[in-house]
Structure formats: structure tokens, C-alpha cells
Fold this protein.
Amino acid sequence: MFNKLCERVYDQRRAMSAEVPGSIPGGRMQAPVVKWYDISLPRRHSSVLFTFFVAFIDSLRLMFKCDRVPFYHLRVVKLHGVVSFFIMQLEEAVRDDVAEWRAGGPAWGGLDHLLRNAGPLSTDLNPEAADATQTFLRQHCKILIIGAGGLGCELLKDVALSGFRHINVIDLDTIDVSNLNRQFLFTEADIGKSKAHVAAQYINSRIPGCRVVPHHANIMSFDAQFYQQFNIVIAGLDSVEARRWLNAMLVSLVQFNPDGSVDRSSVIPLIDGGTEGFQGQARIIYPRFTSCFECTLSLFPPQQNYPFCTIANTPRLPEHCIEYAHVILWDKLKPFGDVKLNMDNAEHTKWLYETAKARSEHFGIQGVTLRLTQGVAKNIIPAVASTNAIVAAACANEALKMISAIAANMDNYMMYNGKSGVYTYTYKNEKKPDCPVCGTPQPKTFQVSPKDSLAEFLEQIAIDPDIRSKKPFLRSSTGKTIYASTSPLREATQSNLKKKLGELITSGTELTLADKDLPFIRTLIINYK
Amino acid sequence: MAHRAAQQPQQPQQQRRYDRQLRIWGDAGQSALRAASLCAISATAAAAEAIKNLVLPAIGALTLVDGTDLRQLPPTAHFFLSSPQRPHNRAHALVAALHALNSDVRTSFIPHHAHEFIDSVSAAYAFVLRFSLVLVADMPASHTLVRFLSQAAFRANVPLVLLRCHGMIGYLRVQAPTLCVLNARQDDLPPDLCIHAPFSHLQALADATDLNAISDTTQLTHVPFVIILTKALQLFRAQNDQKLPASPQQNKLFENIVRSLRPSHCPADALNFEEALKRSNLRLCYSQVNHIPPSVQAVLSHPNADPRTSTAFSVQLESPNHHHVFPQIVHYTKPRPAAHRIAEQQARFWLIAAAVNMFVNEAGRLPVRGSLPDMTADTESYLNLQRIYSEKAHKDAKRVLHFVHAIVDERGLDLDVDDALVISFCTNVHAIRVHSTSSISDELDDWNVDAFKEAAMLEGGLDPSGTGKASPYYPILRAVDLFHRANGRYPGSDTVVKDNDIALMHGYVATVKEQLGLQSNTGLWRHETEEMVRYANTELHNVAAFMGGIAAQEITKILTQQFVPLDNTLIVNMAEQSSITFAA
Ligand SMILES: [Zn+2]
């Protein structure tokens, strides 16, 4: 069965049921019957103030041989009018909601009922392990939600209402007014605040016992050790680059046994969702077992670029005028000095709109509006609450099935389209044998003319469907750096851009391509036509 | 007096807040959504999820009907009802929570169970008239309340959406006698460039372009392909009795003419000539003279679109027979003056469709839409071409508007129609649609067995060895309703008699199989039936969220009159993440 692939989760659940046969740790820890406030601190908290606490807890942790917990809890307890401070580890601080989920309210009773009743199609379910599964789900399983945006808000609510308690969420963004039409954890009062923090606080206040730990950071600022602590990762990202990076990170965590087979206990499943307008998809990636994000990169074509000669010489559409102002005029005119265009800056947006509008009027082209300007320059993806709800629910449902075995997981890709009726299609997306992340990549051969300039060749690898490198670092097999897009080597190699390929390398040369945004290194072979 | 559905420009703050969805359904769609008034009966988790997804994009008004006292329910992890200070009535509590999400929505509630005051079709009729759309959640289709609402809503032409979740299974049913779509937004339709029947300005522009006389190659490679194809077709017609290419051989001939038009001094890889060649085939699929797509023809030949005999140009609804007293609606926020009704939008739709009918009778073709795709061309020739298309479209729309006024005068109608609505109707005339569904009440007694079998067959749901299917759960849900009617509870809900429930359910499924003309004693749907008993009508949040999302999306499509609505039943199996739709 496909489910068996998730052995890491299975092993842990089995271990749990062996440890506490048939027991629900209901009376394990009684919450103090007092008013209390919790403050969660990320372990990486740099404040000097807490260094002492962290050291203190570390010694406690060693003393009590506690499992690794990535953050600490500062609890302020007000007892008989006297305020005392306790620092507790998360596990003990979780207010017990066992009584509630066993009592069987409509939302949680459903899961408990299904765990205790097997059916002919739930072949992986062992009703005897129901209590152990509940304990594992609520007290040990750690889930990471990536993104606290349209999908992320829904995902947080869905996994929390599914029974997950140890939830981490990463988001780099702050809340904007245009998020409020779908990101329901935020209100107007939250505009400008961190998405991750506001979302975590909201969920924690609504779901008893839930501990969402927010990370206001870029996913790339966390290392392998961070990702390794989770049982499941669900991604609700809109950036293809971020999804490529995350996918490669999780694939890289897979360990191999001495006989070359995959060590299944090292596999962390990734559930990935995406939406656009009334369309979306949800998929399960079991690194090394199923197709990965990189295998199916061609499903996410790069955004359309208008040819330079069109936007410069023969503009016809309002988009052409906006793109010219965006790509050419901003750098040429430097209206705000030597700064990058920031579409979140109202002044920048206004300048771009007015410049594009002036250009369109010069040519007699109609239709440059502020909405279109933002759409083109920011590459805005249309988004609505309902599609996010649908895709997030499908992702969270797969996560719950993975942990609970109340039903088999889908294998492995679901497409949704609500534009014409309601259409879903679930199919097995096949692994690509030469996937540069999870397969055995072959050197990629380029047939080019020796008269092409290096700049032209770089354009080619930027749009090549399975490379898409925008910040390349190219080195020939002889060790010569052909081009580097980042300092300090950029200055040294910039002069190569105008040179013809024939002047730089001979036919048949092997080039090594690296890119700081890409999670792999590729070998390119250059053959002259 | 009909409510005016004029597009009101949104305030800048609103523009920013709703920017991401305005990019999907535009200002017109948003105005229609803002004018709508939704009634939701029974505030279960799935309904709450659906409503949340309508409150966020700012539906106009919302009335929740639910008499449940939250103190009577087991402790629950309902996301919107977890505040300790929540009101005790479930409708009240949910309205309070949803109001906090978006105060642009007018909210109200009735803290009573709907069946307490809707006790006849006539009462249901008087009730549904107040709303644009009614959503009923988690009630068996055979429930008398659903029957009353279904018959009443069908008569009043108020769309009704039925949403149910049973364990891992979701069910969604849309009921509406007619649904008019202003813009189906299907982007796979080829643009109508009128090349097969060029209007005078297009022909004049083609005539004025002498390709061989253009010596400048830059200019030559920027002649729009529309001009090249118009010229080529004129040549073809001159050689072929004024006929269009009809056979593959003639297509080849036509392609050769297109090739022959490229002057010898023009580069072989000129993009505009490549575009012309590429389109020479595509164009032919759409080039039957005066071709009107079948989905548009269905609108124009509908009895409601007949300029002389149609009765659909005004909202003609019988008033309720009796005076019914309903519990007072508690307004959580200030009420809107009037609910905008689908029937009023439809009266305008049919009036304009009738005017388009008169236009087609006169011109022998649909109005020109006026949109021009991007193509290889220099700025001047492209803008010139764009201008003549948009002028032609404007002229056609003016003519349609003239017919609208003629019908209004002749029939003495009290219906004001915005010029902008007529223009946008003509701009999207290729994408107008009409849909109609059977009524849920009729489906209970006499359902569309053939449509189900066809959909089930395609999915493999009639194959006993197949797994992972959604289709078996439609007949099983019918069996669940039979069980519920006989026992007053859902199968599996009493675990003590689970085996007995399974046996009973196999019996009910056998009855449904007989209705389908299938052998009743085979193993077909056996496992699925037992799974359904296992589910025991449990409510799982993810299933509720998934189905609530789809319900909200369907309701949005109906209220904005955009995209293509569900026809008419959706069954989702979240255990395997599969689904089917069919017209029950
Ligand atoms: Zn791969």
C-alpha cells in the first residue's frame, strides 16, 4: 500500500502504542486552575534576557531526559494574588483536551469514531491503536505549515481542527489589505504585522491546547536540522522558486542504507498545494518514492515575458507599455535614485502607473489602469477564499489520513478546476528518472552557434524548461569561471557577456552550472552547430 | 420596480481589499455579489465554511436560520464558535463571528429551526421570495423541509443549493429552473475575427494593403495576419464560386494561397505570415458562415428569448396564497433596503437576448465582439485594426440597444436596462449560456438513471472490482435517505446495532440497484455501503471545509452570473480524493 511509504510516521506511532499500551495520558498534567498567560519563544531567540532561561531549561532537559523541543514556554501564573514565574517545556504546557476529543463533539468525535471503527476500504487501520494514534497526533506529531497566506490560514485552521497540536508556521510576509478577502485569520487592525505571528496567535486563542509556533522568516534561513524535526510538511506557497528549494531540502534529508536502499525512517512527506483563480492542485511528495516538485516543473511554466523589441519598438497592448516602464525606464530614469522597484511602495507604484500611462497615450494605446499596472509588474495571481479552502482542505485531509490511517492516501496528484462545473482529477504523477533533484540527472546538451554571445546563451538557460537558472554561475571543466552573476566574481566576468561563445569555449566543453536560487548543480555540454 | 444592477464603482479601499477576486470576476461580478442576499438553513460546520467563503469576498446580505442551542451539543472544536462569550443560539453565535470577519456584509439570523415555521410549500414559497439564493446544509434530500423548499424555490426561480457531508463523503446539489450566464469565461474559445465575412471597413483595409508594393521589409513583416488571411480568403473565394474551404484538400489549397501571398523579398521566417498559416486551420473550425456556437444558440432559441412571445422580460411571480407569519428576523447589522433577486437579473438577460435575436435575424450573424488578440504588427497597423473592430462592435451593440428599446416600448415593459450592460452582453455574446436543472423534489421520485449510469460507467463505478470511486455513493446516499426515513436516524449512528444497520443498508442499496436496472444481488458497491455505515454521519472538518469551499464557489458563480455552474450533482469521495458530477 501507498500508505506504507510513510513508515517514519508509522514507526513512531507503533513505538507510541508499545510504550503506553492502551493508556491515554489524560491525567498526566493538570493545568493550574488559575489565570495564565503563555509566551512562546523561538529557540533562536537572540535576546540576552532569555539566555539565562534557555540555559536553565537545557539543564532541566538533560536532567529529565526530555525529547528535543525547539522552543520554550514562559508561563506567568497568578496564584492567590501572588505572581510567580515558571518556565515549562511545551509538552507539559499543552492544556489537555483529551476529555473533549473523547467526548465526541461533532468536529473531533468524527475522527475518534472513524479511528475506532474499521471498514472494508480502510485496510491500514487498526482500531486497537485508536488511543495511541490520538496521543501521537495530539502530543507527539509535529507538523510544519509553510506560508501563512491564502492557503496557510486555511491549512492552520484545518490541521488544528484535525487534532494536530504541535504546529510550526513560517512566513516572511506582513499583512496587506489585499489579503483580507481570503486570509481570514487577519483583520484590518493587523495590517503591517507579521502573518506568521498573527495567524499563530489567532489559532492558539481559538483551539484549546493548540500550540502554533510562528517563524517570521524566509524558509531558506532554516537548516536541515530544523526541517528534520517534523513528521509532515505542508506547503502553501505561491512562489515556484520557494517550492523548488523546499522540495530539494526535503529530498536531501533522505538517508540511504548500506545496501543502497532508502532508509524509510528518514523520509519526510511533503504535501504541496497551489491555487490560481478557480483552479488549484494538491499533491503528496514522498521524497525518493514519488515524483517530486522538480520532476514536474514543466507543469508550472515561467511567467510570460514580452519580447524586448515589441515593448521597445512596436507596443500594441497596455501591458507592453507597463512592461517597458517596469523593465527599461525604471533603470534608465532612476526616479527615486539607485533603488530597486518595490511594488509595495505606493510612490513607486504611482510612478510606474503614470509613466506607463504617458507612454500609452503617446502611442494612442488604451487600457493602462492602476489595477493592470499592479497585475503586470507584480505578477499578481488572482485569488479567492473558496479555492484556497478547497485546496487546503484536500492537503490537510491527506495529512490526517497519513497520521491516522482512517483512509488510504491518494496516489498522488489532484487537480481541481471550478471554472466549468466542478472537475477534479486524481492521478499518479510519475517520477522523472533524470530529475536533477531526486533522480539521476544526465548532462544537458545545448546545440548553439559559436557566434551567439554569452548573454544570449544565458537567456536560453533562463527559460530552458528544466533548468530555469536566473542567477547562474558557470565554470568550465578546465576550471575557468565563464560567468558569475554575483559578486565578487561578477565584476571579473561581466566582460564575457558580450563575447561570442566561440571565443570562450570550444565545442563539446562541459560546463558546471550552479545557481544560488537553485538547489542543485547541473552539467551542461555545449556543442556548436 | 426592478432593482437596478448598475455597476457601482468600488471605493478605493474596497478596490484594494477585494483586488485579488476582482481580477477573477471583475467589477460587474462584484456588484452582483454585493446586491445578493443569501439565506442559509442550518449552521453546521460545512455551512459555516461555505458562508465564511462568501462573507470574506463580501456577499451583500446573509440570513442564518438555526434553532440549535449550543449548550445542548457536546463540547466541540468549532472554529467560529469557540469564544467563551459566544451567544447560546448557533445562528446568533456564527453570525457574530462572521461579522467580525467582514463588516461590509449585512447579517441577520432567525434563532429557530426552519421546519418549525416552514410547514408547507406555500409557506416555503413566501419565505424563499425574500432571498437571492437559499443554501440548505446537512439534511437528507427526503426531509419534508427540503421537499417544501425545493418545490417553492423552483416555482419562485430562486436557486437552491443542498450541501451534505457524511464521513468522508460530500454531496452538493444545485437546483434552478433557469440559470443565465453572462460570461462563461471559457478561454479556449477562438476569437471571432470575422475573416469569413469581413465587414466593410475590414475589407477596405485588406483591399488597401498591397503586400507586393511594400518594399520595406520591416513594414512587410508587420502586416497583421488578419489582413493576410482576409486577402487570401478573398482570392480563394474568387477561384471557388465564392465558397469557403470545406474539405481537407481545399484547406491545403487555401494554405497554399496564404503562402503565395508572401512576396519574394519578404524573409521566409516572417512571424506574421507564420501566424497566418497557423490560424488558417483554426479559423476554419469557426468559419461556417454565420456560425453561432451551440451554447449561444441554446440561449437565442429559448422561448424566453423570443421578442414577441416571451413572458420572461418582467418578474412575474404569483404572490403567496396565504399570509404566513414567520419568526422575526433578528438584524445583527442594519438591513439592506431590498434584496436583489436572481429573477430580476434574468429578466434583463432575456430582454437583451431577445434583442440579439432580432439583430441576428437582421444581420444574419452575432454582433461583432470587438476584441482583438495580440499579434505581430507595428503599433500603427495594430491600433488601426483594433479601432475598426471596436467601432464595428460599438455599432452592432448600438443596434442591439435599439432593439432593446423597441421591445420595451412595444411590450410596455417597466424594466430599465443599462447601456453598459447591453454593451458588455454583446462583448461577451459568444460566452452567454443558459442552464436548467431538474428539481430536487422530482429527483426523489423520478431520477435521471441514464445520466447517472453514464457518469458511473465512465468512472468505472459499475465495475465491482474497481475501488476509489465516487459514483457508488450517490445510490448509497439514496439508500441512506431510505434508511433515515424508516428509522429516524442515520445508519451506523448506533454502534451497538452496527451489523444490523449494515444488513438493512444492503437491502436499501439493492432497492436502488433495481431502480437502475442492475442485478441487486452482486457484490457491486458492497464495500462502499459498509464504509458508509462506518462513517455514521460523522462530521470531519476537512470534508466540511472542502465541500464548503466548493459550495461557496458554485454560489459565487450563480450570483455573479459568470463561469459555468455545476450541472447539477457532485459526489466527492475524500477517502480517495475522487469526484463525479452528473445531471440528476
Ligand atoms: Zn524529482
The first strand of chain B starts at residue 37 and ends at 41. The pocket of zinc ion is lined by residues A 291-292, 294-295, 432, 435, 437-439 (CB under 6 Å). The radius of gyration of chain B is 28 Å. Chain B touches chain A through 89 residues (CB under 8 Å).
